[in-house]
Specification:
This protein is an alpha+beta fold. It has helices spanning 31-34, 48-54, 69-78, and strands at 7-12, 15-21, 38-40.
Length: 82
C-alpha cells in the first residue's frame, strides 16, 4: 500500500523518476487534481548533447525508416553472418 509521505522511485527507459506522495485521492479524478497529490523530486533530464553522445552508434536517425534489403545484407556481411 502507498501512504502519504512515501517516496517512490521508478525507472522508465533510461530515466529515473522520484515522487513523494502528499495525499491520496478518494476518487479517480482529472490529471490536474492528481498532480496536487504528489511532489516530483526527479533529477532534471540530461542536456540534449549528452543524450546524443550516449546513444548507441547503431541507432538510426528518427524518420530513417527500416533498412532496405541491401542495407540488411551489408550489415550481415559486416557482422560476419554471411
Amino acid at each position: 500500500m502507498v501512504a502519504p509521505g512515501d517516496v517512490l522511485t521508478l525507472q522508465k527507459a533510461n530515466r529515473v523518476q522520484v515522487f513523494r506522495v502528499l495525499a491520496l485521492a478518494r476518487r479517480r479524478g482529472p490529471a490536474a487534481e492528481a498532480r496536487l497529490l504528489y511532489e516530483d523530486l526527479s533529477p532534471p533530464p540530461p542536456p540534449r548533447e549528452e543524450r546524443a553522445m550516449r546513444r548507441s552508434p547503431a541507432a538510426r536517425e528518427p524518420g530513417g525508416g527500416r533498412p532496405t534489403k541491401k542495407q540488411r545484407r551489408e550489415t550481415d556481411h559486416l557482422k560476419g553472418r554471411l
